[in-house]
Amino acid sequence: HSEVAASYIETQLLKARDQQQQQQQQQPQTSQPSHIQQQQQHQLQMQQLLLQRHAQEQQQQQHQQQQQQQQQQQKQQQQQHQQQQQQQQQQQKQQQQQHQ
């Protein structure tokens, strides 16, 4: 799921860059007022920023999920270890009782 989102973000970033390059190439020929061009470029930059931020957030979420999974695994291992210890103690008690 996250890989799909990451590739989507990459394609969006590439599109935005292409648009910027095209605009820069067109600039000398077009008679558009410079403030309109600046606005368009500004919009593209904002798009890129938002996409980058979105990508970063997803990476952070993935990282958090991995950490949570690791913590859960550690808890499970600790619980198993405790259970094993308890079983061993019970067995020792039983053996002692049998000896008596």
Helical content, roughly?
over 70%
The profile of the biggest β sheet is:
none
- What gyration radius follows from the Cα positions, in whole Å? 30 Å
Percentage of β-strand residues: under 5%
Tally of structural domains:
1
Strand/helix succession: HH
Low-confidence stretches: none
Please, how many helices?
2
Mean pLDDT: 84
Shape, principal axes of CA atoms: rod-shaped
The end-to-end distance, rounded to whole angstroms, is 62 Å
Structural class: mainly alpha
Total beta strands? 0
Structure, described:
- There is one protein chain.
- The longest helix is centred in the middle third of the chain and has 66 residues, at 34-99.
- The N and C termini lie far apart (62 Å).
- The chain is mainly α and 100 residues long.
- The chain has one domain.
- The chain has two helices and no strands.
- It has helices spanning 2-26, 34-99.
- The radius of gyration is 30 Å and the shape is rod-shaped.
- Residues 19-45 have a biased composition (Low complexity).
- Keywords: Coiled coil.
